[in-house]
Design goal:
The complex is a heterodimer of chains A (192) and B (301). By secondary structure, chain A is of the alpha+beta class. Chain A is 20% helix and 48% strand. Chain A folds into 2 domains: 1-30; 35-191, Lipid/polyisoprenoid-binding, YceI-like (Lipocalin). In chain A, the strands form 2 sheets. In chain A, strands 1-3-4-5-6-7-8-11 form an 8-stranded antiparallel beta barrel. In chain A, strands 9-10 form a two-stranded antiparallel sheet. The radius of gyration of chain A is 26 Å and the shape is elongated. Chain B has helices spanning 2-29, 148-151, 155-193, 199-225, 237-267, 279-298, and strands at 31-39, 49-53, 60-64, 70-76, 79-86, 93-99, 104-106, 109-111. Chain B contains 6 helices and 8 strands. In chain B, the strands form 2 sheets. In chain B, strands 1, 4, 7 and 8 form a 4-stranded mixed sheet that branches. A 4-stranded antiparallel sheet of chain B has the order 3-2-5-6, with no helix packed on it. Chain B starts with a helix and ends with a helix. Chain B has 3 domains: 31-117, Carboxypeptidase-like, regulatory domain (Immunoglobulin-like); 120-153, no CATH class; 155-298, Four Helix Bundle (Hemerythrin (Met), subunit A), CATH 1.20.120. In chain B, 23% of the residues are buried. Classes of the chains: A alpha+beta (192), B alpha/beta (301). At the A-B interface, strand 1, strand 3, strand 4, helix 2 and strand 9 of A face helix 3 and helix 5 of B.
């Protein structure tokens, strides 16, 4: 009887020990929770060159989100085309027309980056931009990352052109604008 | 010698044919996949993404549907493909198709709305609306908090914008053309209004002035009749451009009237008198306002 009781105690200890071990090991075995990046501030500006003047259209209406999974983060940044303000309502309406802004009201930028890139000073992103009903891909676009406390400031310029999106160059006094419309990006992200 | 040359030429021709044959065969064997993407109600889905993947070769191609919801994928090698049609707010539709050599296959996709998609929020909370956490792997526009009205295609509005731009482009060109007779009328006014003037000088000035007025009213017509876009407030240099119209518009009505009176007085051997004396100053102010309007939208001050 004593021997049986000792055996039961031993088995109980073994089970308790195994359970403890299991609890200690289990969190590592569980899939990692998805991490998200939240866009706090976003300034997108396009630059248009014309022989008679230079124009910058700015939007602060960009929204974005990044979802990380298994070491890779998928980012989406989007802005309404009509939110770009060049300081002249007539020019903005003209830009809205040539970029088919009413038909395709949102410009989206998608990219996938390794989670570890958050620690780098410069990242090189492959971008997929949907704009004016067209999709353009830009390879290895450099962006500067500046850590600011718990946030990261991201700046860079996308070397976009009108022909990438099959946009007819707007003209003023019969002179067309340059094909290059670099888009400057300034964003502040924080991890959630 | 001639035989050898002929043989060489024949060999070359055979070689070229052999080399080109695979290319020609490849072109002949290329298949096309096209179709339309609609939603459950049958409405077209513009800007939807249609991608094809050949699981054997790993070849992928993607294209977006146009404003009529149609797509066209060309130069596809024959074989089995996995076709995926997707769009924001809809569940992706995946189908397998087999493309025969040189075939033109039509694949129409009907997308159904995401059952788990939250209803569009008219006004999301101000502090963190667009970036609410989500369990979806890849973020979507719905995750960013855009209302459906913001992402929806507005074809009527686009047509209105197209018409507006078309009319204002004509307005701009006619305005530029108007400057030519306008400058010429100002230049010829020196000989037309002085003490020692001839009938010819006055007639030339009058003809140029009439041409200016005609072109001006045509220019104005295209600006006045260009469709207005609701909810747009005038900002920037265009406000000055429009404000100038309140000066050069009445000026362009007054100037020819006063000019006609002055012309008549001069032709009768009289001195230009009464309100006809204002023809010159009114014309100068009108031309100045017109020039300022033109420059205000052309140059950045």
């Amino acid at each position: 009887m004593n021997c049986e009781s000792r055996n039961v105690k031993q088995i109980a200890r073994l089970v308790t020990g195994s359970l403890l071990l299991l609890f200690l090991l289990l969190p590592q075995g569980l899939p990692a929770a998805e991490e998200q990046w939240v866009l706090d501030q976003c300034t997108l500006s396009y630059h248009v060159s014309h022989p008679l003047h230079q124009v910058d259209g700015v939007s602060h209406a960009g929204r974005g989100k990044g979802v990380c999974h298994e070491g890779q983060c998928d980012f989406l940044i989007a802005a309404p085309v009509k939110s770009f303000d060049s300081g002249d309502s007539n020019r903005d309406l003209h830009m809205l027309q040539v970029t088919k802004g009413a038909e395709f009201p949102i410009v989206t930028v998608r990219t996938r980056l390794p989670e570890s890139d958050a620690k780098a000073a410069t990242i090189y992103a492959d971008l997929e931009i949907q704009f004016a009903g067209q999709t353009a891909h830009y390879k290895q676009v450099p962006f500067q990352l500046i850590p600011q406390g718990s946030e990261i400031k991201v700046t860079g310029t996308i070397p976009a052109t009108l022909s990438d999106f099959k946009i007819e160059a707007p003209t003023l006094l019969t002179l067309p604008v340059k094909n290059e419309i670099p888009i400057h990006v300034e964003m502040t992200w924080h991890r959630q | 010698m001639r035989d050898r040359t002929a043989n060489l030429a024949s060999a070359l021709v055979v070689m070229i044919v052999l080399l080109l044959a695979p290319c020609l065969r490849a072109q002949e064997s290329e298949a096309t996949l096209s179709g339309k993407v609609t939603d459950a109600s049958g409405a077209i889905v513009a800007n939807a993404k249609v991608s094809v993947k050949n699981p054997t070769t790993g070849q992928t191609m993607d294209v977006q549907t146009d404003a009529t919801g149609t797509y066209n994928l060309t130069k596809l090698a024959p074989g089995e493909y996995e076709v995926t049609a997707s769009a924001e707010g809809f569940a992706a539709k995946i189908e397998k198709v087999t493309l025969a050599a040189g075939a033109s296959l039509t694949f129409n996709a009907t997308l159904s709305g995401l059952p788990s998609a939250p209803p569009p929020q008219p006004q999301a909370p101000a502090n963190n609306p667009p970036n609410a956490p989500s369990s979806i792997k890849e973020p979507s526009l719905a995750d960013l908090g855009f209302a459906s009205a913001e992402t929806k295609s507005h074809l009527k509005e686009q047509a209105l914008l197209d018409k507006r731009t078309h009319m204002l482009r004509i307005h701009q060109r006619l305005g530029l053309i108007t400057t030519i007779p306008m400058i010429a009328s100002v230049a010829t006014s020196i000989n037309a209004g002085g003490r020692h003037t001839s009938n010819t000088d006055r007639t030339v000035h009058m003809v140029l002035g009439s041409a200016t007025a005609d072109l001006y009213f045509m220019t104005a017509y295209f600006a006045i009749r260009a469709p207005r876009v609701e909810g747009t407030k005038s900002r920037g240099p265009i406000r000055f451009h429009k404000a100038m119209a309140w000066i050069h518009g009445p000026g362009m009505i007054l100037t020819p009237i006063l000019g006609a009176i002055a012309y008549s007085q001069k032709n009768n051997g009289q001195r230009v008198q009464g309100m006809a004396k204002a023809h010159g100053p009114v014309a100068i102010v009108t031309a100045g306002a017109f020039g300022a309007a033109l420059l205000s939208v052309s140059l950045r001050f």
